[in-house]
Amino acid sequence: MRKPNVFKKLGTWRGGIRSSIFVLSIFALIISLGTLSKFNSLGSFHVTDTLCNYVNPESQSRPDSHVRRTLETVIQKIQQELDKFRDSEPEPSSSKHVLKYSSFLADILGHIESVQTSLSQNEETHELNSGAKDIHPLLKPKQQSDEPADYFLIEEIRKYVKIKPNRLGKQNFMGANGTFTSIGHACFAMKKELEEYMDYDIGEICNDDWRLAQKLMVHGCDPLPRRRCFSRAPKLYSKPFPIHESMWKLPDNRNVRWSNYRCKNFTCLASKKTQKGFFKCADCFNLQDHEKPRWIKPAYLDTNSNVTADFLIPEVLNIKPGEIRIGLDFSVGTGTFAARMREFNVTIVSATINLGAPFNEMIALRGLVPLYLTINQRLPFFDNTLDLIHTTRFLDGWIDFVLLDFVLYDWDRALRPGGFLWVDSFFCLKEDLSDYLEALRMLRYKKHKWVVVPKLDKDDKEVFFSALLEKPGRPFR
Ligand SMILES: *[C@@H]1O[C@H](CO)[C@@H](O)[C@H](O)[C@H]1NC(C)=O
Ligand SMILES: *[C@@H]1O[C@H](CO)[C@@H](O)[C@H](O)[C@H]1NC(C)=O
Ligand SMILES: *[C@@H]1O[C@H](CO)[C@@H](O)[C@H](O)[C@H]1NC(C)=O
Ligand SMILES: *[C@@H]1O[C@H](CO)[C@@H](O)[C@H](O)[C@H]1NC(C)=O
Predict the structure, then answer these.
(1) Cellular location of this protein (predicted)?
(2) Using only C-alpha atoms, what is the Rg of the chain?
């Protein structure tokens, strides 16, 4: 980024330059670029760097000290030149040029001094490394891992990942001596995006960039770092509808920021028109016609066999009356499952991301709890705590088998013994079905319900599958 600037500057004043300054400047430029690129290559291959130093600690120190001496000389010369400019009384005709030269020299001086600083830092670590040269690198004691702070350039990221010791030197309520804020390793692969995300003015309003944030999360930079800026809110937030109205009514359009959605109001989301920007659950905002009957009346009935993949809430809850009280709905949707369960005195949190529509906003405006969660994360529940996990339109034929395994084991972890796993209308290609069923059988849950129904809209190539499974007690030590 710096190089073009400097060259542009060179290009602007060809005429009337005192040749000595020009030669000196070019010399300084070459030194600075040369050293800069050398340092950069060392910095970005941190591991190789330390290994090389270990293998041959002598070979690098001599050129370094030579470079350092040269840098000192160059800096001295430029400073002398600048001082001369300051002291001299320029003739009015040449004062414009003099001003340009001196600001150019000051610029070059800044570059060189920054190189000098990094070089001396580099040498310090170098000395540390060569001090431990008798130990094999792999046996060296592991350094306190502040490494992300070396990798990222944005100051706000470096601040975020630095381990923060507790004040007063005491353990905190979590029994730790400090706070170890984390960013996932995938953040490193998305350096550009993460730096864009963390590039803001502290205390100001954040950019309107939740989509960038969601992109980072979906691609594994999850959990995202916190930020010290204020998130954007809808311009005119009116209070939500009272709880007895909010469940089955489209919310006030003013309570959502629409700028990053294709639809600009809830009527558009609820309409039958296509092109709404999301595909799963296209009718989810149509509360009256589409959502209201769900889990109360079967929606899809195979006419040949007279079986449905839609279990009804009352029949599920009646298997264990009063026992199912809390749970998770991991689905794409607007929270209707949680809304219905609420009527049965069951508390459900709805995990979803905003795939092309304001799903989280909608769930919250209905008076339900949205959990903004990707599939990349371990569930934020302790082991053996939930009575129910329900999932629909989420785990489908796209999912990798190994990933499905990890997800199912994690759900099993969060479910309590005797809790239900309700796989609702999972669909996949016919030929994949047995592999997916195998993944579920692996759990060795008790089967309360287990149905496979042909799905007729895709040339009869797909099937629906639903199951209601119960986690067994595992009375082992
Ligand atoms: C926390 O600090 C205390 C006292 O300084 C120390 O004894 C303990 O080993 C530290 N624990 C950890 C996990 O660093
Ligand atoms: C909702 O948005 C659509 C386009 O997205 C627009 O045609 C329609 O007039 C809007 N309706 C209301 C009530 O604002
Ligand atoms: C289909 O099932 C319903 C209720 O489950 C029943 O009333 C109806 O008679 C069945 N129809 C056929 C053709 O089996
Ligand atoms: C839910 O709880 C309320 C009050 O605790 C009770 O009146 C109502 O009958 C319960 N509903 C169901 C479906 O159990």
Answers:
(1) Endomembrane system; Membrane
(2) 32
CA dist 335 and 29 (Å) reads 62
- 262 and 364 inside one domain: yes
Q: Which atom of ligand 2 is nearest to the CA of 253?
A: 14
The pTM assigned to this predicted structure is 0.69
Residue type, 375: I
pLDDT at 99: 64
182 and 73, same domain (yes or no)? no
Atom of ligand 2 nearest to the CA of 263: 5
Distances (CA, A) of 206 to 192, 200, 259, 394, 451: 17, 6, 15, 31, 48
Mean pLDDT of the chain: 80
Q: What is the number of the ligand closest to the CA of 254?
A: 2
| Residue 57 in domain | yes
CATH of the domain at 370: 3.40.50.150
Structural domain boundaries, residue 85 = 2-139
- Quick check: CB of 263 below 6 Å from ligand 2? yes
Q: Is the pLDDT of residue 320 over 70?
A: yes
Q: How many CB atoms lie within 10 A of CB 19?
A: 7
